[in-house]
């Protein structure tokens, strides 16, 4: 074999070993008591594109704008402190629905680990800080895709940063999909807090203002009760 051919053959061998995907490594499933099959490891159900999900979030908006929210170290730390866990992401894709000069809401793309792999979904948030909708775009596990159904995820609608959004507290679990439910609940909470910190608080409509109004209202109600006895 000529030197040039030997070099080419060697290069192909190096390239061949370099492209072996990490996902080819076997993954043990404790519940199944075995390694996942290649078919299970490659599982990926695509239900919606980002644009399709955004249109579901803002069906009546005149226009939908897409932006990349890049968190400052301070914002990331604050969000992590509020949700109680650390995450690697420093930026999120956010869609904003607008009609005229009014903001109809925000929608944050989330990727959180289910059992073995991440699921991709969009969390809509009204300008008052309540969840408007949740739409699963891509689900990559063999089981647990029921989280995409409205029968399940409609229970997130109306939730705010003041709600726990946790299984057995204010979220009803799905049998056989506990990790997916836990993952989605964590993502919904993170989306709410992210919108609160990065969009609502800067314009004076965040949870700090809401909490202050609630405290004031509670004080006035208590005062009226002391004065008038009701």
How much of the polypeptide forms β-strand, as a percent range?
15-25%
- Distance from N terminus to C terminus (CA atoms, Å) equals 99 Å
- Percentage of helical residues? 25-40%
Radius of gyration: 23 Å
Which residues form runs of ≥5 with pLDDT under 50? Answer: 2-23
Can you put this structure into words, describing what you see?
The chain has 230 residues and is an alpha+beta fold. It has one domain. Helix content is 38%, strand content 23%. It is built from seven helices and eight strands. A six-stranded antiparallel beta sheet has the order 3-8-7-6-5-4, with helices on both faces. Strands 1-2 form a two-stranded antiparallel sheet. Strand 5 and strand 6 form a beta hairpin. Helix 4 packs across helix 6 (178-200).
Map the helices and strands.
Layout: H1 3-18, E1 28-29, E2 34-35, H2 38-41, E3 45-46, H3 50-57, E4 63-70, H4 73-83, E5 91-99, E6 102-113, E7 118-125, E8 131-139, H5 150-153, H6 178-200, H7 207-228
Antiparallel strand pairs: 1-2, 3-8, 4-5, 5-6, 6-7, 7-8
Helix pairs in contact: 4-6
Descriptive tags:
single chain; 230 residues; alpha+beta; two-stranded antiparallel ribbon; 38% helix; globular; disordered N terminus
Summarize the structure.
The protein is 38% helix and 23% strand. It has 230 residues and is of the alpha+beta class.
């Amino acid at each position: 074999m000529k030197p040039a051919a030997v070099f080419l053959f060697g290069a192909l061998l190096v390239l061949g070993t370099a492209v072996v995907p990490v996902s080819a490594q076997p993954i043990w499933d404790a519940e199944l008591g075995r390694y996942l099959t290649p078919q299970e490891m490659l599982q990926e159900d695509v239900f919606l594109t980002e644009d399709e999900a955004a249109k579901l979030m803002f069906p009546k908006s005149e226009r939908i704008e897409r932006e990349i929210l890049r968190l400052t170290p301070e914002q990331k730390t604050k969000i992590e402190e509020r949700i109680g866990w650390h995450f690697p992401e420093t930026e999120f894709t956010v869609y904003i629905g607008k009609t005229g000069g009014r903001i109809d809401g925000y929608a944050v793309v989330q990727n959180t680990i289910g059992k073995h792999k991440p699921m991709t979904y969009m969390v809509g948030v009204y300008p008052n800080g309540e969840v408007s909708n949740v739409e699963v775009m891509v689900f990559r596990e063999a089981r647990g895709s029921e989280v995409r159904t409205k029968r399940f995820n409609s229970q997130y609608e109306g939730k705010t940063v003041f709600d726990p959004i946790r299984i057995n507290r204010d979220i009803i679990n799905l049998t056989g999909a506990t990790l997916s439910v836990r993952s989605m609940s964590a993502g919904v909470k993170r989306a709410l807090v992210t919108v609160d910190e990065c969009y609502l608080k800067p314009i004076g409509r965040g949870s700090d203002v809401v909490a202050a109004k609630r405290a004031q209202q509670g004080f006035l109600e208590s005062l009226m009760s002391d004065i008038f006895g009701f």
